[in-house]
Amino acid sequence: MDICPKCGLPLQACICEEIAKTEQRIQVQTVKKKFGKIATEISGFQGVDLKAIAKSLKQELACGGTIKDNKIELQGDHSKNAKRVLAKIGFPEDTVEVI
User: With pLDDT > 70 as the criterion, what percentage of the chain qualifies?
Assistant: First the structure.
């Protein structure tokens, strides 16, 4: 049985990521990229699995995206819907700020 190094619970019962989700200050903003393309950048993550969050965001919003410099970058303007999807994933809505 594997033990989580942070909380000391077995990995199946580990709640570290759930606790980390409530302590985030996430910022969602749109930026203009090369050739006038619009992208949505989501930043402010600490101690969570960015790859899994990016995957679920891309599936829910039906868009492409990547992870760069501890930020999730989505293709297109998804600033209105990103807050709703992040709340569905488990982040409290009051910790998500749309700029």
Answer: 99
